[in-house]
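User: For a benchmark we're assembling, each entry needs the component sequences followed by a predicted structure for the full assembly. Here are entry 17's components. Please fill in the structure.
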Amino acid sequence: MAVLDIVKYGNPILRKACKPVSDFSALPRIVADMFDTMYEAEGIGLAANQVGLDMNLCIIDVTHTEEADEPLTFVNGKIVDSWGESIHSEGCLSIPEVELEVKRPEFIRFRFQTPDGEEHVEEFGGLLARAIQHEMDHLNGIMIIDRVSPLIKMQYNKQLKEIAKNASRHVKERKPQGNFAL
Ligand SMILES: [Zn+2]
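Assistant: Structure for entry 17:
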């Protein structure tokens, strides 16, 4: 169990389309560390590249709502369809102290694997659909600041520059094989 450093806006790994996971053997340890990290930061979702890992993996915990009764882990996720529209404010652990109104489809059809490799296609709505879209954006190199108008983004320019300036001193990309070898 370990709390990892969260990568902040300005770090290039947040702009990467993350690689599919093919070796599932290291996942239990990585996922446990990601949950420790997310809970420590009081987040409800976390994508692997937010802790410096280039892999299509994210975790979400919305057990404070009626929408899920356990924390969720999604591997090799892909949103295959979406419909409807909703606007809601979102924060991001990689962009501290910034909250933005983000417009997204309200419902999604989502294909993913569980950490044991099982394949699923399921439909989601509400907060869970929003959280999945936020994390899948991360895993495709997209952040909430890209989901608002240039005018809104401009209002945060100074704050973003400040975050980016500090980000470069922090986390480097991790190599899962080395870090998680027995
Ligand atoms: Zn985020």
